[in-house]
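[job 4471] stage=fold_predict status=RUNNING
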Amino acid sequence: MKKYGLTILAMVMGFFTMAQDVEEIIKSYCKARGEEKFAKVQSYQMEGIRVRNDVMPVSYYRSRPNKYMMKFDVGDLTAYRTYDGEKGWHTAPWRGVVNPEELPADATVALAGTADFDDQLANWKAKGYKAKLMDDEKVEDKDHYVIELFSTTGFSTLFFIDKETYLLTKIKMVRPRGEQQVTIEVLYSDYRSIEGIMFPFIIEEYTNGYRMVTTELDEVVLNPVLPNDFYNMAQYRVD
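[job 4471] inference complete, writing C-alpha coordinates
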Protein backbone atom coordinates (compact mmCIF):
# COMPACT_ATOMS: atom_id res chain seq x y z
CA MET A 1 0.00 0.00 0.00
CA LYS A 2 2.84 2.35 0.84
CA LYS A 3 4.38 1.78 -2.60
CA TYR A 4 1.09 2.53 -4.37
CA GLY A 5 0.61 5.61 -2.21
CA LEU A 6 4.02 6.94 -3.22
CA THR A 7 3.26 6.23 -6.88
CA ILE A 8 -0.02 8.14 -6.72
CA LEU A 9 1.68 11.00 -4.88
CA ALA A 10 4.38 11.14 -7.57
CA MET A 11 1.74 11.27 -10.30
CA VAL A 12 -0.13 14.07 -8.54
CA MET A 13 3.06 16.03 -7.98
CA GLY A 14 4.05 15.52 -11.61
CA PHE A 15 0.70 16.85 -12.81
CA PHE A 16 0.95 19.83 -10.43
CA THR A 17 4.46 20.64 -11.66
CA MET A 18 3.33 20.46 -15.29
CA ALA A 19 0.40 22.79 -14.55
CA GLN A 20 2.77 25.21 -12.85
CA ASP A 21 5.14 25.03 -15.80
CA VAL A 22 2.33 25.87 -18.23
CA GLU A 23 1.33 28.88 -16.16
CA GLU A 24 4.91 30.13 -15.86
CA ILE A 25 5.57 29.72 -19.58
CA ILE A 26 2.40 31.62 -20.48
CA LYS A 27 3.30 34.36 -17.98
CA SER A 28 6.77 34.64 -19.55
CA TYR A 29 5.23 34.78 -23.01
CA CYS A 30 2.85 37.58 -21.98
CA LYS A 31 5.73 39.50 -20.41
CA ALA A 32 7.91 39.13 -23.54
CA ARG A 33 5.02 40.25 -25.72
CA GLY A 34 4.41 43.36 -23.61
CA GLU A 35 1.00 42.26 -22.35
CA GLU A 36 0.89 44.82 -19.52
CA LYS A 37 1.11 47.66 -22.04
CA PHE A 38 -1.07 45.90 -24.59
CA ALA A 39 -3.86 45.61 -22.00
CA LYS A 40 -4.23 49.40 -22.20
CA VAL A 41 -4.62 49.41 -25.99
CA GLN A 42 -8.23 49.74 -27.19
CA SER A 43 -7.69 49.21 -30.91
CA TYR A 44 -4.95 48.84 -33.48
CA GLN A 45 -4.47 48.99 -37.22
CA MET A 46 -1.91 47.15 -39.36
CA GLU A 47 -0.98 48.03 -42.93
CA GLY A 48 1.03 45.97 -45.40
CA ILE A 49 0.85 43.60 -48.33
CA ARG A 50 -0.72 40.18 -48.65
CA VAL A 51 0.88 37.79 -51.12
CA ARG A 52 -1.33 35.04 -52.55
CA ASN A 53 -0.63 34.54 -56.23
CA ASP A 54 -0.79 38.34 -56.53
CA VAL A 55 0.48 41.09 -54.26
CA MET A 56 -2.46 42.77 -52.53
CA PRO A 57 -2.48 45.84 -50.26
CA VAL A 58 -4.07 44.81 -46.95
CA SER A 59 -5.31 46.51 -43.79
CA TYR A 60 -6.20 44.82 -40.51
CA TYR A 61 -8.26 46.42 -37.76
CA ARG A 62 -8.98 45.12 -34.27
CA SER A 63 -10.97 46.71 -31.47
CA ARG A 64 -11.97 45.63 -27.99
CA PRO A 65 -13.59 43.47 -26.98
CA ASN A 66 -13.54 41.17 -30.04
CA LYS A 67 -14.03 43.00 -33.31
CA TYR A 68 -11.93 42.39 -36.40
CA MET A 69 -11.74 43.45 -40.02
CA MET A 70 -9.41 42.48 -42.84
CA LYS A 71 -9.69 44.75 -45.87
CA PHE A 72 -7.70 43.92 -48.99
CA ASP A 73 -7.56 44.91 -52.62
CA VAL A 74 -7.54 42.55 -55.60
CA GLY A 75 -6.81 44.73 -58.59
CA ASP A 76 -9.40 47.50 -58.41
CA LEU A 77 -11.73 45.42 -56.19
CA THR A 78 -11.89 45.75 -52.39
CA ALA A 79 -12.86 42.77 -50.23
CA TYR A 80 -13.73 42.48 -46.54
CA ARG A 81 -13.63 39.75 -43.92
CA THR A 82 -15.13 40.94 -40.65
CA TYR A 83 -16.25 39.76 -37.23
CA ASP A 84 -18.57 42.36 -35.68
CA GLY A 85 -18.52 40.85 -32.20
CA GLU A 86 -21.38 38.44 -32.92
CA LYS A 87 -21.34 37.40 -36.57
CA GLY A 88 -18.78 36.79 -39.28
CA TRP A 89 -19.11 38.50 -42.69
CA HIS A 90 -17.26 38.54 -45.98
CA THR A 91 -17.32 39.83 -49.52
CA ALA A 92 -15.69 38.28 -52.58
CA PRO A 93 -16.21 40.71 -55.45
CA TRP A 94 -14.02 38.70 -57.84
CA ARG A 95 -16.77 36.05 -57.87
CA GLY A 96 -19.71 38.39 -57.70
CA VAL A 97 -20.19 38.65 -53.92
CA VAL A 98 -20.05 42.44 -53.72
CA ASN A 99 -22.37 42.88 -50.72
CA PRO A 100 -21.52 41.47 -47.26
CA GLU A 101 -22.69 37.91 -46.69
CA GLU A 102 -22.84 36.15 -43.34
CA LEU A 103 -20.26 33.38 -42.97
CA PRO A 104 -21.27 29.79 -42.13
CA ALA A 105 -21.03 28.66 -38.51
CA ASP A 106 -17.64 26.90 -38.74
CA ALA A 107 -16.00 29.88 -40.47
CA THR A 108 -17.53 32.26 -37.94
CA VAL A 109 -16.10 30.26 -35.02
CA ALA A 110 -12.65 30.40 -36.62
CA LEU A 111 -12.96 34.14 -37.30
CA ALA A 112 -14.12 34.77 -33.73
CA GLY A 113 -10.89 33.16 -32.55
CA THR A 114 -8.93 35.49 -34.83
CA ALA A 115 -10.88 38.44 -33.42
CA ASP A 116 -9.86 37.65 -29.82
CA PHE A 117 -8.23 41.00 -29.10
CA ASP A 118 -5.96 39.81 -26.29
CA ASP A 119 -4.94 36.64 -28.15
CA GLN A 120 -5.98 33.27 -26.83
CA LEU A 121 -3.17 32.79 -24.31
CA ALA A 122 -3.75 36.07 -22.49
CA ASN A 123 -6.14 35.63 -19.54
CA TRP A 124 -6.74 32.05 -20.68
CA LYS A 125 -8.09 30.91 -17.33
CA ALA A 126 -10.62 33.74 -17.14
CA LYS A 127 -11.85 32.74 -20.60
CA GLY A 128 -12.51 29.20 -19.39
CA TYR A 129 -9.74 27.68 -21.51
CA LYS A 130 -7.58 24.74 -20.47
CA ALA A 131 -3.85 24.48 -21.20
CA LYS A 132 -1.59 21.44 -21.45
CA LEU A 133 2.18 21.37 -21.82
CA MET A 134 3.28 19.05 -24.64
CA ASP A 135 6.72 17.71 -25.54
CA ASP A 136 9.23 20.29 -26.72
CA GLU A 137 9.70 20.65 -30.48
CA LYS A 138 12.07 22.47 -32.79
CA VAL A 139 10.96 25.21 -35.16
CA GLU A 140 13.68 26.16 -37.64
CA ASP A 141 16.29 24.44 -35.44
CA LYS A 142 15.29 26.37 -32.31
CA ASP A 143 13.88 24.72 -29.20
CA HIS A 144 10.27 25.58 -28.44
CA TYR A 145 7.78 24.98 -25.69
CA VAL A 146 4.53 23.58 -27.07
CA ILE A 147 1.25 24.37 -25.31
CA GLU A 148 -2.07 22.89 -26.36
CA LEU A 149 -4.90 25.27 -25.54
CA PHE A 150 -8.47 24.00 -25.40
CA SER A 151 -11.09 26.70 -26.00
CA THR A 152 -14.71 26.69 -24.86
CA THR A 153 -15.78 26.00 -28.46
CA GLY A 154 -14.30 22.49 -28.27
CA PHE A 155 -11.36 23.26 -30.56
CA SER A 156 -7.72 23.13 -29.54
CA THR A 157 -4.67 25.00 -30.84
CA LEU A 158 -0.96 24.28 -30.45
CA PHE A 159 1.22 27.27 -29.55
CA PHE A 160 4.97 27.11 -30.19
CA ILE A 161 6.92 29.49 -27.96
CA ASP A 162 10.63 30.16 -28.49
CA LYS A 163 12.57 29.07 -25.39
CA GLU A 164 15.01 31.97 -25.72
CA THR A 165 12.75 34.91 -26.56
CA TYR A 166 9.45 33.54 -25.20
CA LEU A 167 7.77 34.93 -28.31
CA LEU A 168 5.23 32.97 -30.32
CA THR A 169 6.68 31.68 -33.59
CA LYS A 170 4.00 29.23 -34.72
CA ILE A 171 0.46 28.02 -34.12
CA LYS A 172 -1.04 24.80 -35.46
CA MET A 173 -4.64 23.66 -35.51
CA VAL A 174 -7.03 21.27 -37.23
CA ARG A 175 -10.32 22.82 -38.27
CA PRO A 176 -13.38 21.76 -40.30
CA ARG A 177 -13.70 23.26 -43.76
CA GLY A 178 -16.92 22.11 -45.32
CA GLU A 179 -16.93 18.32 -45.00
CA GLN A 180 -13.15 18.08 -44.61
CA GLN A 181 -10.64 18.59 -41.81
CA VAL A 182 -7.68 20.80 -42.68
CA THR A 183 -4.42 21.43 -40.85
CA ILE A 184 -3.64 25.13 -40.54
CA GLU A 185 -0.25 26.47 -39.50
CA VAL A 186 0.69 30.11 -39.02
CA LEU A 187 4.32 31.23 -38.63
CA TYR A 188 5.30 34.55 -37.04
CA SER A 189 8.66 36.29 -37.49
CA ASP A 190 10.42 39.67 -37.78
CA TYR A 191 9.14 40.89 -34.42
CA ARG A 192 9.35 44.64 -33.82
CA SER A 193 8.55 46.75 -30.78
CA ILE A 194 5.68 49.24 -31.13
CA GLU A 195 5.58 51.35 -27.97
CA GLY A 196 6.95 48.42 -25.98
CA ILE A 197 4.63 45.81 -27.53
CA MET A 198 6.04 43.11 -29.79
CA PHE A 199 4.32 42.58 -33.15
CA PRO A 200 5.37 40.09 -35.87
CA PHE A 201 5.80 41.89 -39.18
CA ILE A 202 5.90 38.69 -41.27
CA ILE A 203 3.05 36.17 -41.02
CA GLU A 204 2.97 33.01 -43.15
CA GLU A 205 -0.14 30.85 -43.41
CA TYR A 206 -0.07 27.19 -44.45
CA THR A 207 -2.91 24.76 -45.19
CA ASN A 208 -2.12 21.04 -45.21
CA GLY A 209 1.58 21.87 -45.59
CA TYR A 210 1.20 24.28 -48.51
CA ARG A 211 1.97 27.94 -48.08
CA MET A 212 -1.17 29.85 -48.97
CA VAL A 213 -0.60 33.44 -47.87
CA THR A 214 2.28 35.61 -46.67
CA THR A 215 1.58 38.94 -45.02
CA GLU A 216 4.35 41.54 -44.73
CA LEU A 217 3.48 44.51 -42.55
CA ASP A 218 4.79 48.03 -43.05
CA GLU A 219 3.13 49.77 -40.13
CA VAL A 220 1.24 49.15 -36.88
CA VAL A 221 -0.80 52.00 -35.40
CA LEU A 222 -2.08 51.79 -31.82
CA ASN A 223 -5.46 53.29 -30.89
CA PRO A 224 -6.48 54.66 -34.30
CA VAL A 225 -9.68 56.71 -34.28
CA LEU A 226 -12.41 54.53 -35.83
CA PRO A 227 -16.12 55.39 -36.27
CA ASN A 228 -18.54 53.68 -33.86
CA ASP A 229 -20.16 51.78 -36.74
CA PHE A 230 -16.86 50.83 -38.38
CA TYR A 231 -17.52 47.07 -38.07
CA ASN A 232 -21.20 47.30 -39.08
CA MET A 233 -21.12 45.64 -42.48
CA ALA A 234 -24.45 47.13 -43.57
CA GLN A 235 -22.63 50.34 -44.52
CA TYR A 236 -20.39 48.44 -46.94
CA ARG A 237 -23.25 47.44 -49.23
CA VAL A 238 -22.88 48.80 -52.74
CA ASP A 239 -26.56 48.75 -53.77
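[job 4471] summary: Residues 2-33 form the longest helix (32 residues).
[job 4471] exit 0
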